[in-house]
Write a structure and sequence with these properties.
Number of helices: 6
Strand order of the largest sheet: 1-2
Number of domains: 2
Order of helices and strands: HHHHHEEH
Helix content: 40-55%
Strand content: under 5%
Largest sheet: 2 strands, antiparallel
Structural class: mainly alpha
Length: 119
């Protein structure tokens, strides 16, 4: 397998380079793994990749929008609970990276912490 980028450091350390040409991993291999254990996830990913908004029945789309708004509302309301305030206090004292918002607050954290705090 030939690497298309200058990644001699990766080869020297034994790490795999994510940029491969023929014979190596491609983005499709990553999105649609060929291992049988991933078959159901692969089918779902293919379906969602080709899904268009026009193909979704309007009542289902309306319900999905309501569920999404309800989820956001629950996340924001959770910041006012005792547990929510404790979580915000625990993560809010660290360095603010101004990358991702924490719903319902002015707090901004790095992506992984924001995902954790936002639930």
């Amino acid at each position: 397998m030939r690497c298309t980028s200058n990644c001699s450091a990766n080869r020297a350390s034994g790490r795999r380079c994510w940029r491969r040409t023929q014979g190596g991993a491609t983005f499709e291999d990553i999105l649609f793994p060929r291992n049988p254990i991933h078959e159901h996830a692969c089918r779902l990913a293919r379906f969602l990749t080709h899904l268009k908004c026009e193909d979704v029945p309007s009542d289902l789309l309306h319900t999905a929008k309501l569920v999404t708004l309800d989820t956001i509302g629950c996340i924001v309301a959770g910041t006012c609970t005792t547990l929510g305030e404790e979580i915000l206090a625990a993560y809010g004292d660290g360095p603010q990276q101004n990358v991702c918002s924490v719903a319902g607050t002015a707090l901004r954290l790095g992506p992984s912490l924001a995902a954790k705090v936002n639930g």
